[in-house]
Structure formats: structure tokens, C-alpha cells
Amino acid sequence: MTHWHSDSRQLSAGSHDHQLARLAACGIVLALLDAALPSPLPGIKPGLANIVTLYALATLGWHAAVWVSLLRIAGAGLLLGSLFTPGFWLSLAGGGGALLLLAAAQLLPARCFSVVSRSLLAAGGHLAGQLLLARGWLIPHDGVWLLLPPLLTAATVTGLANGLFTLKLLESAKDET
């Protein structure tokens, strides 16, 4: 945990802060990779950075997942030159939607959700957040809903793939300890 030293007035970072920073940095790198990949349709991306959020949720808990997600969105926005552009707000809305569904899942017994099912929830929440913002602000026309079938298909496929990758990552980390 971050804390102040009363005698020197310096802010020091603890091991938890270092873990969050490392995960956020990994998320930023994955977000940059995502941005570089060609897209067959606007909005269809693998969402690789979500792997880091899921990993943070599974290993460090809910608050860490929120911090990693928000730091990743802000950091990628800065590095891509898209901070406070419509793309940034879409990313934030998607991240917020994913976090809302993950928060709801946290309220239910853990045995109800695997890493893969949480990933699918997050992918659906991400899509919902982005589409609602796009419909309400960027494309105020009901035609935006015509994108739902291909986007939902892509969210399901990428959510499943990211969840399986996160599961393997967690198993690998568990084997190392």
C-alpha cells in the first residue's frame, strides 16, 4: 500500500503498488498491440488487455482490477494520442461496462463463475458500454443496433479466448509457486 512517511514527507510505494503498476503496464502494452491490429469491422478487436484485468481480479481482487483497468485505459489513451477523444470515451465506457458486470458477479458465490465465464461477462459488458455510448452520443440513430450480431459474435469469441488464456496464465503462475 502507498503511504506517507511523516518524517520525510515522501510518498512510498509498497509491493502491492508495484504489482498494480506492472499489471497496468502490461495492459497498456496489450492495448497498444490491440490498436495496431487491423479490424474487419469497427469495434472488433481481441481485447487482449482484458486478460490483465481478469488476472488482476483473480490474483489481487476487485479494487486492483479496477485500478489496472483505469490505468490501462488512461495510459493507452496518452500513448495513442487519443486521450479525451471519442475513442477514449468508448474505451472508458467499455471498461466501465465490463467492470460493472464483474462487480455484479463478485456479489454472487465464487463457485458460480470461472475465469472464462467472468471473461465472457466482461466482454459482454464492454460491448454494452460501448454500444450504449455510441448510440447515445456518437451515432444517435437506431441503425447502430444493426452492428449487434457481428459485434456480439466477436465479443463471445474474444471473451472465450481471453478467458482461456487467462486461465492458462493463472495455472502457470500457480505452478511456479
Automatic annotation (TrEMBL):
Keyword set includes Protease: no
Transmembrane feature ranges: 20-37, 49-68, 88-108, 144-165
Keywords: Membrane, Transmembrane, Transmembrane helix
Source lineage: Bacteria, Pseudomonadati, Pseudomonadota, Betaproteobacteria, Neisseriales
One Pfam match: Hpre_diP_synt_I
InterPro entries listed in its UniProt record: Hpre_diP_synth_I
Name used for this protein in its record: Gx transporter family protein
